[in-house]
Amino acid sequence: MDNNRRTVLATGAAAAMVAAAPAAFAQNTPAQNGAKFYQRGDVRIHYQDSGSGYPLLIIPGGGLNSTLSFFTGSAPFNALEEFKRDYRCISNDLRNATGGLSSGPLEIDRPWDAYADDQLGLMDHLGIKEFMVMGFCIGGPMIWNLIKRAPQRIVAGVLAQPSGSRPEMRDLFYDSNLKTWALEITERRPDITMAMAERFLTRMYRTDPDFVFTVNRIFVRNCQTPVLILPDDIPAHPYTVAMEAAMLAPKAEVSLFPWKTPKERIPLAIRQMRSFMKAHQRA
């Protein structure tokens, strides 16, 4: 009985120590498939670092619920598996995404820049200065923002099925996230109220509700970073916006359309992505 009691007490004490100091274990904690945690203040980012070669940051799709599970779920193909033979592939759960393990404060006045802070901070944590970036869905606006924030670091960008703003559906992202992401985050985070979530979404999707959200047409017209754009054509991924960006950007290339259907076309699109990145990666 005494031995059992000592075992229970020791186990409970160890559990209490882990619970009391999560940040100490979050700095570089291994998880499944090579995933780890990166800690910066009160921001904790769950990421994966796999493969070898020139560094490639890959932003999952899924809007504000962008997580690593995208690549094995709704993605057109698993970019992490596809490119890890040629590149050092880094990806992460978006901060506060439902179903993800990344967390941090809701930066109401600078949502897009808060996400960029996480992405650039992660690359700093890994000791990576210059890199290429590939993004799906919400990754499109995020890539434009990364190019704006750190033009000397972003060597090239691949924007697959990028998000954009339709003039006839300006509140699409605000309304859909209010009904899903906002409800979910306020349920699991008592420190975040619905009023805070509404203000966050307003700043993100209603303050500058045009084009690609994060930059304007003048910026894209003057952008000297090579980009490859693979358009989609659903409400959240408007074909016209993707093609307008491709026509404006002086160093833009564009894929065939549609590139995801029939599925036999996907290998051709992947071949173009690989060829584009190989042409622009630096020694």
H/E topology pattern: HHEEEHEHEHEHHHHEHEH
Number of helices: 11
Q: Which CATH-level-2 architecture?
A: 3-Layer(aba) Sandwich
Let me know the CATH homologous superfamily. Alpha/Beta hydrolase fold, catalytic domain
Measure the end-to-end span: 65 Å
CATH class: Alpha Beta
Summed over residues and divided by their number, the pLDDT gives a mean of 90
Total strand segments: 8
CATH topology: Rossmann fold
Spatial strand sequence of the major β-sheet? 1-2-4-3-5-6-7-8
Per DSSP, what share of the residues sits in E-state strands of 2 or more residues? 15-25%
Helix content: 40-55%
> What is the makeup of the main sheet?
8 strands, mixed
Report Rg: 20 Å
Structure characterization notes:
With 283 residues, the protein is of the alpha/beta class. It has a single domain (50-280), classed as 3-Layer(aba) Sandwich (Rossmann fold). The protein has 11 helices and 8 strands. It has helices at 2-20, 22-26, 79-83, 111-125, 139-149, 172-179, 181-188, 194-205, 217-222, 239-248, 266-280; strands at residues 35-40, 43-51, 54-59, 87-92, 131-136, 154-160, 227-230, 252-254. The protein is globular and about 45 Å long.
